[in-house]
């Protein structure tokens, strides 16, 4: 079935890069569902997280439009809006969270997308053919290898808008490599969100279609 079959007539049309973010009013690390959380339960500062989130939002709003969804009590990880689903052409494949600690987010994100006119789809995970299609979009010469140390600082968890890259602090070597390819690199301190296993990309879900010219940061295995 073609993508156009799914598209709703009331689906929003975005002029330019547009992202969805959720204020960290209720953000907390109070359970463990990934290795990053294991040593950080109740160690995240909401005050610092808010300051870091605002810095990211301000940086992003200089190059894109930002829409907001309100956080909901009991779901502290809603701040990681990129986990809500995959979006393209007014259609969202909504996420089905594995961990009970995040499953309640689905209802709130589903309502937000539906209220804006998105077509909400429930799809199975990627199969081998789908993964091959994704890989085919990024030929080797457009892949940027990332060292283990930069990967552990969430360098791959970046927001890319045209020639701008917003991400957590990285090594000078990787920064130079990105700049040599013509990118403007904005390094932001996102340490409070690393404690939950997320960084720049996790904090902003792209609602508009991806730029055709962007490259892919790939961690070296």
Overall pLDDT score:
90
Approximate helicity band: 25-40%
- Along the chain, the helix and strand elements come as HEHEEEHHEHEHEEHEHEE
Question: Oligomerization state of this entry?
Answer: single chain
CA-atom Rg in angstroms: 17 Å
Taking the alpha carbons of the first and last residues, their distance comes to 36 Å
- Contiguous helical run count: 8
Specify the biggest β-sheet. 3 strands, mixed
Shape: globular
Biggest sheet strand order reads 2-1-10
The helix/strand class is: alpha/beta
Explain this structure to me?
The protein has 221 residues and is an alpha/beta fold. Helix content is 29%, strand content 19%. It has 8 helices and 11 strands. The strands form 4 sheets. It has a 3-stranded mixed β-sheet, covered by helices on one side.
List keywords for this structure.
221 residues; alpha/beta; 3-stranded mixed beta sheet; globular; disordered N terminus
Short structural description:
This protein has 221 residues and is an alpha/beta fold. The protein contains 8 helices and 11 strands.
SSE topology sketch:
Blueprint: H1 3-6, E1 18-21, H2 46-61, E2 65-68, E3 85-88, E4 91-94, H3 100-103, H4 105-116, E5 119-121, H5 128-136, E6 143-146, H6 148-152, E7 159-161, E8 164-168, H7 172-180, E9 184-188, H8 191-194, E10 205-206, E11 216-219
Parallel strand pairs: 1-2, 4-5, 6-11, 8-9
Antiparallel strand pairs: 1-10, 3-4, 7-8
């Amino acid at each position: 079935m073609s993508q156009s079959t799914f598209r709703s007539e009331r689906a929003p049309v975005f002029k330019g890069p547009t992202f969805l973010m959720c204020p960290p009013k209720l953000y907390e690390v109070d359970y463990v569902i990934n290795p990053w959380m294991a040593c950080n339960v109740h160690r995240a500062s909401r005050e610092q997280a808010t300051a870091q989130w605002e810095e990211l939002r301000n940086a992003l709003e200089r190059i894109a439009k930002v829409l907001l969804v309100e956080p909901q009590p009991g779901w502290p990880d809603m701040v990681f809006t990129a986990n809500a689903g995959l979006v393209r052409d007014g259609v969202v494949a909504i996420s089905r969270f594995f961990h009970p600690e995040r499953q309640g987010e689905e209802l709130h994100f589903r309502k937000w997308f539906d209220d804006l006119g998105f077509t909400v789809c429930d799809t199975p995970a990627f199969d081998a053919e789908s993964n091959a299609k994704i890989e085919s979009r990024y030929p080797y010469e457009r892949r940027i290898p990332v060292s283990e140390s930069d990967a552990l600082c969430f360098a791959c968890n970046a927001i890319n808008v045209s020639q701008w890259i917003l991400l957590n602090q990285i090594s000078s070597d990787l920064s130079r490599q990105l700049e040599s390819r013509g990118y403007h690199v904005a390094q932001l301190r996102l340490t409070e969100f690393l404690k939950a296993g997320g960084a720049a990309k996790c904090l902003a879900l792209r609602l508009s279609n991806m730029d055709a010219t962007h490259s892919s940061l790939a961690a070296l295995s």
